[in-house]
Fold:
Amino acid sequence: MNIFAKIRFTHLALVVLVLLNLGSLSALWLNHKGPHPPRPPHPPHSPHGGRSVAAFLERELDLSKAQREAFKKLRDAHHQAARALLKDMREQRQAFFDLLGSDTPDQVKMTALSQAIGHNQAALELATFNHFNQLRTLCDTTQKPIFDRVVHEALSMMAPKPPPRRH
Structure:
């Protein structure tokens, strides 16, 4: 094969590769479905949308000004207690999964950490129950049936959102 044939072959291969590259890029561009819609932001001061839950409850229960002020105090105290429990659980989970770095994880420490996480989760559930029970005691006789009807909806609003599905 002479030098001119090699140059012609190289040029031909280069043109074919450029055309394949352009074809691939145009296929990607034509099949692009556009940007993903933006995620709705969480309301401020709450990882689970608590502010919107509070607004929902205030609106549904038609709380008076005094009831709203008392509810705000209850809510602030509950959030402070919940934040402390969640911080503890986060640290305990970190220590728990740090045990995976060992070839032979300490079973006693693993059991103690898992029980501590469970204890804090139970304390969080009780704190949430007591918080809503205290809100119910703030309600008058006309508001209590409404509370009983909407409390499960409020709790579901507070639940963590499931992760997005991957396609």
